[in-house]
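Minutes, project check-in

Agenda point 3 was the complex the collaborators sent over. CS summarized: two entities, 725 residues total, and the question is how they sit relative to each other. Sequences were read into the notes so everyone works from the same version.
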Amino acid sequence: MTDLIEREADLLRFATAGSVDDGKSTLIGRLLLDSKAIFEDQLEAVEATSQSRGYDYTDLALLTDGLRSEREQGITIDVAYRYFATPRRKFIIADTPGHVQYTRNMVTGASTADLGLVLVDARQGLTEQSRRHAVLLSLLRVPHLVLAVNKMDLVDFDQKLFEKIDAEFTTFASRLNIPDLQVIPISALKGDNVVTRSQQMPWYDGPSLMHHLEHLHIASDRDLRDVRFPVQYVIRPKSDDYHDYRGYAGQVAGGVLKPGDEVMVLPSGMTSTIAGIDVFDQEVPEAFAPMSVVVRLTDDVDVSRGDMICRTKNMPEQTQDLDAMVCWMTTQPLRPRQKLAIKHTTRTARTVVKNVQYRLDVNTLHRDQDASELGLNEIGRVQLRVTQPLLVDSYERNRTTGSFILIDEATGVTVGAGMVNS
Amino acid sequence: MSTHADYRLSQLDELEAESIHIFREAAAEFEKPVLMFSGGKDSITMMRLAEKAFFPARIPFPVLQVDTGFDFPEVLATRDNWVERLGVRLIVASVDEAIKNGIVIDDGKTSRNRLQIGTLLNAIEVEGFTAAFGGGRRDEEKARAKERIYSHRDEFGQWDPKNQRPELWALYNGRLHEGEHMRVFPLSNWTELDIWHYIAREQIEIPSIYFAHRRKVIPRDGMLLSASEAVQPKAGESVEERLVRFRTVGDMTLTGCVESDADSYEKIIAEIAVARVTERGATRGDDRFSEAAMEDRKKEGYF
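CS then shared the predicted structure for the full assembly.
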């Protein structure tokens, strides 16, 4: 089994979202517990705390609420990352809080996720929050979505109720951009349909949550068409053995690079050919996302950090004007004429806010055209002017070359997350 | 590097690619980075990843070890081998020196582990480091599960868990004010088992104390401490010889070993895969003080 993990297993990153009491921590606790990612000393600590608080059951949520203030308040206030593995896959969970005031944390967790997991309480049905979570996951282009209808044990495993929630959500999701949706009835507390199929719900013929997570095909979610290689670091050894070595290090953001390919370096527009691709001391026949490699070119062209290598007939847009959806993450509102630092792939520049076109109500999808600024946890369509050209694709096309962060130059804090519109 | 016709990367390859990206990003953006090196399996894995990130050039930053004065000789020997082979500069910040110079105060009650905090922060300040790579993993401890890959520290070296920068995509924000620094954790998404798989796959040289060997130990508080000048039996305690290995390495006064016959990478992996107790719960006295021991130390500047 250990060999299998090493050789075959791949990585799936998923973000969880849910309202306060819908059992999200319990579900994560159960996934960790059933995949043996929880150790006895951790479980004993949680049992002891549960007991000293007078609970009549072991509160698995205590496993995931790591900070003193979270344990004091009994709520999750920040994104936490959890890990578990099965022989097929390793999983990284971005556990994000459900409160509306923590939209920024959900955006953070979803930015790297392959899959979004939204929990609803079967007794409550869809809430404003479930819709908001689906909207955010759609906006962040998380390719797979699971709606887990939890606490089925508390509604007598009622098929009709489940089907009603399923239909309602599917209708709502059809207005969004969600390529893949799976709806699963579960009981996180009792374990129904979490790891094994539930005996209580013979009417449900879909997979258990764990089976779905393990078998989902994710490799094709990555962009294998458009070659995008943001240059991160120039490697010049200046040693006797590698006197003339000059390599461009970076992580492939899209497409497949091969030795012999004719490429263009932006922004200079110089063309050359890939002489070789190195991964440490070995040459590899090709590179694709998310490999970190070193690319050597046949010509001695001038390439530095912030440049991008692409194919000659398939280039990103080179522009100083960005039209993007921005999630604002700080109390001082985003306003026209505001100046900020912007980081996009490996390039950092300065930018000025030209205008806010509208503010998006993530509950109703209503676009408020009268809005002229964005407050904390608000999302809107914003136009920016950048001091130097950036090499961008639409976020829809490529989540790496289509995303950026905004930084307050006075405080140094990340204040916004942006996704370039097509 | 195993590439496949279906363009899948194995999870170890993907973790490696992510860590290398982080190393290059920090090396490109910070003026004066340093790699914190304890000689343990995680910091050795970091050395290996840094070696790969910049190959065939040398690692473009020095290595900093905080010497507790109670480090295992086998660990120091491995440290020296790595430093020599990679040709990196080694800086040693000594807790003994820090005590002598009045930088930290040894009241006879505070552990060496805690005294490392002031010693480390002083070294970072004196050398003017703006970024310090650490081998912390989020699976180690619940306070670490909350920490960012780029973890901002104020001019006192403090971590503020409630005021962390959001970390989006792989766009790390390295902005600093005068006197502040960043802790950078390339191994954030690795688990203990991942580290061992990687060490085995790469045949990485690690200190011999990770492998089963016979050693004189003192059973104390449910742990087996290595008998040495620093750790002598108290009244009623005995020194026994057992077949043991270490799951973590730290200061000898606080790091326990476990009984084991795992004397190869493969046997260690098999043992870890079925372990029912965390590495820290099993062998680290310093995490037993309170439920928030790690969080409290981290707020003060621990790594």
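Noted in discussion: The longest strand of chain A covers residues 347-360.
Follow-up: revisit at the next meeting once the mutant set is ready.
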